[in-house]
């Protein structure tokens, strides 16, 4: 290891500590703030080193962020297993909103993964499949940024109830901003209706939570909105937000 390597490591540690201090302060003073104010803070703080991620379940977050930061980078993980409606929603977002949609792809195609690890990995080892097709590609894509915006909400599942509006993403050593963390489903529905937000047409066919086609089923009346994800596999998160 050279002196330059050591200095670079120390600089990265200092930057990380500085970002963590920003997170602690922002999490306190932005709690309870409107989503647009949280986004405005993130855009002013991180500039072009801020991005957002979208699964293209709807364009609510894209609509919110693009009104504050036009041209923002939107990372879309193209797993190779998406519903055709999800790909169509992505294409529509490119046409409608002032954003820069960036397609993120896994290191292996579906065919290559089947060849190397066997077919239907999503049924045999869904955690590994999600890691290879979602988590690892996103980790790689987020490297140039200091902060990313996600659309997770506290009411979506028990694992998300403690979500803060600004958090330190220790796994990726960066800031994570969750501007709609405190929103309810009614808040979401009202915003979509009031602003004419694009939504994935699968929502009209009882898919309230949309992931990869092999691992997503329709939800029956009275079921938890995320019960259609990895049904019967004992899995509730893909790993991106853990």
Automatic annotation (TrEMBL):
Its cofactor is [4Fe-4S] cluster. GO terms for biological process: hydrogen sulfide biosynthetic process; sulfate assimilation, phosphoadenylyl sulfate reduction by phosphoadenylyl-sulfate reductase (thioredoxin). [4Fe-4S] cluster binds at residues 129-130, 212, 215. Residues 56-217 form the Phosphoadenosine phosphosulphate reductase domain. The keyword Metal-binding applies. It is found in: Cytoplasm. Binds 1 [4Fe-4S] cluster per subunit. The active site is at 238 (nucleophile). It comes from the Bacteria. One of its GO terms (cellular component) is cytoplasm. Pfam families: PAPS_reduct. Keywords: Cytoplasm, Iron, Iron-sulfur, Metal-binding, Oxidoreductase. CDD domains: PAPS_reductase. Pathway: Sulfur metabolism; hydrogen sulfide biosynthesis; sulfite from sulfate. One of its GO terms (molecular function) is adenylyl-sulfate reductase (thioredoxin) activity. Its EC number is 1.8.4.10. Catalyzes the formation of sulfite from adenosine 5'-phosphosulfate (APS) using thioredoxin as an electron donor. This is Adenosine 5'-phosphosulfate reductase. The gene is cysH.
């Amino acid at each position: 290891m050279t002196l330059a390597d050591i200095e670079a490591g120390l600089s990265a540690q200092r930057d990380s500590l500085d970002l963590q201090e920003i997170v602690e302060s922002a999490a306190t003073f932005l709690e309870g703030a409107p989503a647009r104010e949280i986004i405005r803070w993130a855009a002013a703080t991180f500039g072009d080193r801020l991005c957002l991620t979208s699964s293209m379940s709807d364009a609510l977050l894209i609509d919110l962020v693009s009104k504050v930061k036009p041209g923002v980078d939107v990372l879309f993980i193209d797993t190779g297993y998406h519903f055709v409606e999800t790909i169509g929603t992505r294409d529509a977002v490119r046409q409608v909103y002032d954003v820069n949609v960036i397609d993120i792809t896994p290191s292996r195609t579906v065919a290559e993964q089947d060849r190397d690890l066997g077919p239907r990995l999503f049924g045999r080892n869904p955690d590994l499949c999600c890691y290879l097709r979602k988590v690892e590609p996103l980790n790689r894509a987020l490297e140039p940024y200091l902060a990313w915006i996600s659309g997770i909400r506290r009411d979506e599942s028990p694992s998300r109830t403690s979500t803060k509006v600004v958090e330190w993403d220790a796994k990726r050593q960066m800031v994570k901003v969750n501007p709609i963390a405190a929103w309810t489903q009614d808040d979401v529905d009202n915003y979509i209706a009031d602003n004419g937000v694009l939504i994935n047409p699968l929502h009209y066919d009882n898919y309230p939570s949309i992931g990869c086609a092999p691992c997503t089923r329709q939800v029956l009346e009275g079921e938890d909105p995320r019960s259609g994800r990895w049904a019967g596999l004992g899995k509730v998160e893909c790993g991106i937000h853990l």
